[in-house]
Specification:
Number of strands: 0
Largest sheet: none
Low-confidence stretches: 6-35
Radius of gyration: 19 Å
Strand content: under 5%
Order of helices and strands: HHHHHHHHHHHHHHHHH
Distance between the termini: 30 Å
Helix content: 55-70%
């Protein structure tokens, strides 16, 4: 699910190698995310342009001058997260929380950073990975307790519960209870969370039915359609993905993610591959990489599949390598590259 990517993607990242605990999707932020408000315009512009290392340097200098500014620490954590310095991100989010403990999104992002650190540690330090996974759960719960209308936090907590084993706070019943609470706040998000739970539990018939109900309800925000598109992409369902993308384009034809989704849908259908290539290249060239939208690594993966469909093995391998350079832990990309190199 790229929107809960990252979706993302929102594809998902396993928090623990042997027990999937929290999966973070690339999803656009809701109203709780204040954008780049509170930052000097030049630093906000760096973040918006995907210049995360430059923004990090500027924020670190600013933090030294303003050590009690929680907003600076929060955005420092966000930039460190984007450059995959999850330990550093945790430290920054912790400082933000210590300065402003009542801010829901600070706890939510601290939970996300702990989840990614758990994933990172699972290959070498399982004790640390388990500790980070438990903390992920705690921070997501705290974020929801502080503000039940924080949809990002609600969805993150539900995803954790859907994927985690019982000894880490997960389980289908816990997830269903939280979905019920979410539905009282936002019925469409509740429907999306239920569809996602069905998908996680491999109840694909029920998941598909739920996503069709969402599309038929004609929600007025694009994320609902793109989350459905993510599901159909992952299921290899070209017809329904095209349906979701077409509906999304009617809601907001200027959304910067549409070039990615349009390109992927065409690759799945194996038609008009020149247009698909243009769409995916446009996405990579014009949309800065970010954890809350489909990653450039995913765009490279689909370009690789496009060239594979055309029988261009060497070009396909180049795209898979480019994707792996951005996301070295991506098992699917690694397998695709291996397949190409054997030909």
């Amino acid at each position: 699910m790229a929107l809960r990517q990252g979706k993302l993607s929102r594809s998902w990242t396993l928090v623990l190698a042997v027990m999937p605990v929290v999966l973070l999707l690339a999803r656009t932020s809701n109203a709780h995310d204040r954008g780049v408000h509170g930052l000097p315009p030049e630093i906000g512009a760096l973040y918006a342009a995907g210049q995360y290392r430059q923004a990090t340097d500027a924020l670190q200098a600013l933090a030294q001058l303003n050590p009690t500014d929680a907003v600076i620490q929060y955005w420092l954590g966000r930039n460190l997260f984007e450059i995959r310095d999850f330990g550093g991100a945790i430290s920054s989010f912790e400082r933000a929380v210590s300065l402003d403990a009542g801010r829901s999104q600070y706890h939510d992002w601290l939970g996300r950073a702990c989840g990614r650190k758990a994933d990172e540690s699972s290959h070498s330090n399982m004790a640390l990975a388990l500790s980070m996974a438990r903390r992920t759960h705690h921070e997501f719960e705290t974020a929801v307790q502080l503000d039940a209308t924080n949809i990002d936090a609600q969805r993150d907590l539900i995803e954790f519960m859907a994927n985690a084993p019982g000894n880490l706070g997960g389980g289908e019943n816990h997830a269903l209870d939280q979905i019920h609470a979410l539905s009282a706040v936002d019925p469409v998000e509740g429907m999306q969370a239920l569809a996602d739970l069905y998908a996680v539990r491999k109840k694909f018939e029920q998941a598909g039915e739920q996503y069709q109900k969402i599309l038929e309800s004609a929600p007025n925000h694009i994320d609902a359609y793109l989350e459905a598109a993510d599901y159909y992409r992952d299921r290899g369902d070209a017809e329904h993905m095209e349906q979701a993308v077409e509906a999304a384009s009617k809601v907001d034809p200027s959304d910067r993610r549409l070039s990615y989704y349009s390109g992927v849908a065409l690759v799945l259908e194996n038609k008009d591959l020149a247009a698909a290539e243009k769409d995916l290249r446009t996405y990579i060239d014009t949309v800065p990489d970010n954890s809350e939208i489909p990653g450039h690594s995913s765009a490279y993966e689909w370009l690789g599949k496009l060239y594979e469909n055309e029988g261009k093995t060497d070009s396909a391998a180049e795209q898979f390598k480019a994707g792996l350079a951005l996301d070295p832990q991506n098992k699917a990309l690694r397998e695709e590259l291996k397949k190409m190199l054997k030909r």
